[in-house]
Amino acid sequence: MIPRLSFTIAVATLATMPLASIAQTIDTPGVTSPLTEAQIARAYPQDALAGAAVDGPVLLKSKGGMSLRVVKLAEGLSHPDGLVFLPDGQTMLITERPGRLRVVTDGILDPEPVHGLPPLNNVGLGGLHDIVLHPEFASNRVLYISYTKDREPQKGTTLAVLRARFEQGRLKDVEDILVADAWESPLGTYGGRMVFGPDGMLYISVGDRDGTTSSDQSSARPQAQNLDSHIGKILRVRDDGSVPPDNPFVKDPDAKDEIYSYGHRNVYGIAWHPKTGDMWASEFGPAGGDEINRVIPGHNYGWPLVSLGRHYSGSPVSDQPWHRDGMDDPLFFWNPPFNPENMFFYTGDKFPRLKGSLMIAGAGSKMVAQMVIRGDFIKQGDTMLNELGVRFRDIRQGPDGHIYVLTEGRLRGPKDTDGMLLRIEPPTPSSSPTDSAMTATHSLALPEAPGMELTMEACTRCHGIDLVVDQPRSPDEWLQVVSVMVGNGMALTDEDYTTIVRYLSDNLGMPMSGPH
Question: How many beta carbons lie within 10 A of that of residue 431, not counting itself?
Answer without folding.
Answer: 11
